[in-house]
Amino acid sequence: MTSLRILIVDDDEDFADGLMEVFELDGHYPVMTHNGKDAISAIEGGVFDVALIDIGLPDMNGAECLRAIREFRPDLPCFLLTGYSAEDVANQGIEAGAMEILTKPIDPDTLSRRLAAI
């Protein structure tokens, strides 16, 4: 699989650290932010192949973050992550262009398969 530049947007630092480790071991180049504002800044200033965005961010929800990212990178594959059932926000995420809503905890093998399809 080709190495990917992955943006991880999650306020749960332990979860984000875990994803960072998994991606680094798989040969990818992850970057982590913990809120929507920093994620948007990262997209403006960097090049990414995919973004993983938590629905429950402290400064905006994941669908709002995704919509803002789409202004800069309308073609960027994005996945929304959730640790709870939030059907209304999840629906907003799909409408904003998320490829899929993934439920935490995320199986690393499942996530690797999703990324390989990009």
Shape: globular
Helix content: 40-55%
Overall pLDDT: 89
CATH architecture heading: 3-Layer(aba) Sandwich
CATH topology: Rossmann fold
How many separate structural domains?
1
Strand content: 15-25%
- The low-pLDDT segments are none
State the fourth-level CATH superfamily: Response regulator
Quaternary class: single chain
Give a quick account of the main beta sheet: strands, pairing sense, barrel closure.
5 strands, parallel
Structural class: alpha/beta
What is the spatial order of strands in the main beta sheet? 2-1-3-4-5
Number of contiguous helices: 5
Q: Write the H/E string, N to C.
A: EHEHEHEHEH
Instruction: Give the N-terminus to C-terminus distance in angstroms.
Output: 10 Å
Number of strands: 5
Question: What this model shows, in words?
Answer:
The chain has 118 residues and is an alpha/beta fold. The protein has one domain: Rossmann fold (3-Layer(aba) Sandwich), CATH 3.40.50.2300. 45% of the residues lie in helices and 20% in strands. It is built from five helices and five strands; from the N terminus they run βαβαβαβαβα. It has helices at residues 13-25, 36-45, 62-72, 87-96, 108-116, and strands spanning 5-9, 29-33, 50-54, 78-82, 100-103. Strands 2-1-3-4-5 form a five-stranded parallel beta sheet, with helices on both faces. Helix 2 (36-45) packs parallel to helix 3. The longest helix is centred in the N-terminal third of the chain and has 13 residues, at 13-25. The radius of gyration is 13 Å and the shape is globular.
